[in-house]
Structure prediction request, 220 residues.
Amino acid sequence: MRLRNIPGSREAIAASRFCIDEPEKLSGRWREHFGNDNPLHIEIGMGKGRFIMDNARLHPDVNYVGIEKYSSVLLRAVQKLEEEPLDNVAFIRMEAEYVEDVFAGGEVDRIYLNFSDPWPKERNAKRRLPSREFLRRYAHMLSEGGRVEFKTDNRDLFDFAVAEAELEGWSMPVVTHDLHADPVLNEGNVMTEYEERFSALGNPICKYVILPHEDRVSGS
Ligand code: SAH
Prediction:
């Protein structure tokens, strides 16, 4: 994501009713926040928020929370949402590493990772959002039957992600190296900004859907 420091972006974000100021306070209380019992889907590293807003429009019976670390990027999402308010969307400006402080055990039904930063140097592997370190955080946050869905055009990152999920014992009902060429998997696919950009260049899009292994819940 290209970064420009946009003056006033933090203030604009703080002023928006769609941005959660102290998200830790909503841990375990997200359904209360949205005022219903609908499923909770989150996108980590949402960028300008198009994917989440398109989904929110298509699925008014699902609550969506978008997480983005840069205020200059998040600002674009906030502006779009202020223009077209959607009651089932909230945004958080935060570093994903602390995501477990914001969502209680079993509170999240789906986690989307789209075109996550590759962090190509090996010493940064644990910063990659589909790394084993992050998968352990996700496993704790996910509800029974909850899943992670990951899309990228970066084959190295995807191969890494598949290997990490295997290592952690997650089941993988969906793995494709060319999503757009698979009519079944591609049906109803909601494109992200990066997906549109990179598939237009001819890059195939990889996707997986994974679920934590079943004995993760303590006491069961
Ligand atoms: N999901 C969007 C944007 C992809 S670019 C799309 O597919 O179009 C990746 C985005 O993730 C960037 O906006 C980046 O700032 C954000 N990001 C990367 N690492 C993050 C982290 N650790 N915590 C929060 N956001 C992160």
User: Anything to note?
Assistant: The longest helix spans residues 71-83. The radius of gyration is 17 Å. The chain has a mean pLDDT of 95.
